[in-house]
Amino acid sequence: MPLQSLEPHLNETLRNSAREILESMVFLTPTSVDALENGSATFEDEVIGLLSFTGSSSGSFVVRTTEALATKMAAQMLMTEPEELADFDEVADAFCEIVNMLSGSFKNEWVADGNQMDLTVPHVVRRGRVNLKATHEGMHTGVRVQIGDARVDVGVYFEA
Amino acid sequence: MTKNVLIVDDSATMRKIIMRGIRQAGIDNAEFKEAGDGVEGMQAVEAGQFDLILSDVNMPNMNGLDFVREVTSKLENPPPIVMITTEGSEEVIGEAMSRGANGYLKKPFTPEKIQEVLGPLLQ
Description:
The structure holds two protein chains of two kinds. By secondary structure, chain A is of the alpha+beta class. Chain A is built from three helices and seven strands, in the order αβββααββββ. Chain B has helices at 12-24, 38-47, 64-74, 90-98, 111-118, and strands spanning 3-8, 30-35, 52-55, 81-85, 103-106. In chain B, helix 1 packs across helix 5 and helix 2 (38-47) runs parallel beside helix 3.
């Protein structure tokens, strides 16, 4: 079932923070950062970063991309070459930090609106399938970041 | 004069980024010790002396807020503690300050911001 969007300024926050984090911490300049209107609650991707939140509402924060781009992002953050990363754990650690920063920025805006939000520690699923439980039909916001030919999708999903 | 800096963060990537950011900010007198969570951080604090502690907030085992409380309650003269966090909410920052933190650096950060916040503490 397609999910709808939350308040527009929350999506703007997500877009701005995605661009800022990628430029200042990952040293990659997005080609474009656009709102992702329709978000499925089931994902299948090469790299999926997840964390859960509770508070005024519960739900999940999801960031997903290809393994090639996740590896490139990790290498950029560590100022090394992708082929010099020893194993996927280094990619996952860097990707978790990106999830952490994106979710933290979203939380700041969410809390500024008078809500509560507690975040779990993020984790990464590699080449897996994720199905979020009972997402609220009207409570989703997301962005798609295009970096050259590759993309990163960022979504916030609230439980019903 | 060399300054001993303890970085407490569960992300090895972020610890490296912080070290690099400090160097990029022109602070070249820092020597670093790393810890992966508050428990490891306390072990480091009990084993050595530090001029500055940088701590994440959201960590497994012992989070940053509890770590600050442990450090300030166990050390007679604790070093300055700066929280490095994505969470810039007044609630989290206020809680950290009330437990003894001296400042905070919000992620994402720039070398200029690092210099502004950490420079005076590492002179």
